[in-house]
Every structure is written in structure tokens, then in C-alpha cells.
Hints:
alpha+beta, four-stranded antiparallel sheet, 13 helices, 19 strands, 37% helix, elongated
Amino acid sequence: MKAHPLTIGKYSVERELGRGASGTVYLGYDRFRGSQVAIKQTHASLLAEPSQAARYRRLLHNEATLVARLSHPHIVALLDADEAADPPYLVFEYVDGQTLSSFTTPDHLLPVAEVLDIAFKCCHALDYAHRQGLVHRDIKPANLMLRRDGELKLADFGTALSLRGEDTQIAGLVGSPSYMSPEQIKEQALTSSSDMFSLAVVVYELLTGRNPFAADSTYSTIYRIHTEIPAALSLIRPELPIRLDEVVARALAKHPNDRYSSWTDFAQSLLAINRSLARLPTQTSEGERFARLRGLAFFADFSEVALWETLRLGKWFDLPRGKVMMREGQPGDSFCLIIDGEVAVSRNARVLSTIRRGSSIGEMTYLQSNHRLRTATVVASTDVVAFKIRNEALRQASIELQGEFDKVFIKLLVNRLIATNQQLADWDLVLE
């Protein structure tokens, strides 16, 4: 690995913090202020060709000019800049923490209340930036910093759009495709509503561990942003308040006029939901439930990421002894996993089998989407703890998770077929 410079301008360099396509960020020390700083330096290799060098110096100048006018507790502050240096650099306040990219997988999500608090703060920071005439254009988890003390900092205004005519603009399609608004992709006129759409994508990802539009290619991602309505949050994670579906869906509206008319309205809607979260399960109970799923043979081959996604996909419930779980001939849109207890399976009032801890029941309505009627009645033989997953929720889950369930279900069906054949063979022996 290439050694970092010992100094940049008047700042000593302690170590590298991160590296991107256009520059490297170092942890530096400001001897005058007696504090750590973050130094963003353009890659020297990008300055070798004059026209390219001019472009990157213009990018750095644009960021310095725009960020210099911002002073907000939730926006990373610009402290210094040297556009003439070789290579040029910017100096920002150092944020001791990590980006929200660290919290976008199902196995490593932040508490729901914290996500909504982050979104609330983002709304206020972006409202402030808009009042200064700026549209960020690149809201994504990597540009949102979470300090160790829990405070949020919005970073990287390098591609920001100024709505003031006198400012130099970075033209063309800029930003990260998975977080772009429909109007941004079309390169139409932008307002702060475009940032609102991007923030809603981030909130969706932080709550579910999946980006609602991400696909195998940039073209497919853009197509999904234009045409697809994301699955409701409560479908992917049933314990989330239904009200949150409406709030995030509105911010994700395809047309800007259908989104919230102001950042204040969006922020207040998030705050109202946050105040109602006392009923949600705690992180401790999530950990306990994860451990219970991990202990079941059904999930033996599931990765931790897949298991966390499963945990947030379904809903736990208790079923007292003698209670009907499923009834023959009735429509079914879900399947269940028996966490504790036993259930009796019958058809035409004849008991066929007993299903115990760690087995699934009702999965045929998922496997045969065109046949939604239950083929048997299921009654709790003991007090039962079960885990219910809606068929549509699993179909909306990641391809990896669907594959894990398919493998288990195929194995399950093969074992049941073998057991049925053995029963028939035993009956033949009796008849003989």
C-alpha cells in the first residue's frame, strides 16, 4: 500500500481514512487549532492531462464555494481549502464515526427510532441547504456520517446544484443511480424534492437492509426507478408501523408534486411516528429471536445475513392449544414455522401427521402461487409459538433469501415424499 504523505499544506497527516475515484481522505492534525481534521485531496494522477486537471480543480472549487456558505450542526463544516496546491485539497471538520453504509444490511440495522431520528435531522439539514439555494444531488448512506455520540453529519456537496444563477455548475448526470429521483435521471430541472426522494430511498434501506431499486445493472436500476412502486415497508418488516408505509411511499412518489410540499412536513410526519414506537420490539428481543431461529435445523444452512433478513420479514405469534392455525379449503397467503410446540395436520377430519418444532407448514401456497386454497387443517396440539411469513413478502425479499428457502422447501418436499412412499409400502404389507 502506498505510504501517505507526512504533511499536506500546514497539516500533518496521521493516516488514510478512505479512498474514492477522484481523491483520498486523510486524517490530519491542525497544529494551530490543536484538533484533528479530515483532508480531502485530489488524486495526483488525475491532474496529469491539462483539460482533465482543469475539470477536477473546477470540481474542488465548486465544492469549496458551495460548502463555504453552509453552517449547520448536521452538515460537515469546511475549514480550509487550497485550490492552487498540487494536488489541491479541502479541509473539513473530522467526524469520529462511520458512514451509514455500515447499517444497510439485514444483519446490521440500527434501531428503528434511531433511523427515524437520523431522517428527521437530515430533513432539517437539507431544508437549510435548500434555503441557501442548494440541491445536494447525491444523498446516499455513504454521504451520511454517524458520530460515535450518535450525532448525524451530512457530507460531500461536491456535486451539489446551485439554484442561484451566478454560481458555477457541474453539468450532466451526477449522483449515485440507486438513489436518484426520476427527474434527476431524466436530467430535468431539480428542486429539493429530488433530495427528498433520495433520502426516502436511504430510509427504506436503513429500515429493511435493502435498496428498493437496486438491480444487476445501472439500466435495470433506472428502469425500476421509473416504473416500479417499492414493496411496502411493513411487508418486508411487519413490525414497522403501517403509518410508515404511507409516509415513505409519499416521499418516493414518482412525480415531485406528489411528494411532501416541504421538508418540515416530511420531518413532522417522521417525528410523529417516532413518538409512537414504544410498542415496537426491543433490540434485545430481536437478538433472542435471532438465536431461536439460529437453533432450528430449518435454518442450519442460512447465512447470518439471510437469517436477519428472515427475522425482519416475518411476524411472531402465540397459538393456544386447540386453536386452528389453518383451515382446509380456505385461501392462504402465508406459511408458518413452528418455533415451539406441536400442531396436528388433518384432511377430511382424518389426522395425517404431527408437525413439531423447527418445521414449516402451509408452504404449498407459496410454492404454487396459482393454487391459494389450503389442502389441510392445522390445529395446535399444544401451546404453540409460530413465525408467520407472507408469501408476497418472501417474493419481494432478496434473490439470495428466496434461494435459501427454495432449497429448504425442496428438501422438505423430498423427505415428505419419501415418508409417504414408506407409509404406502407399510400399508401394502398389512394388506398382504
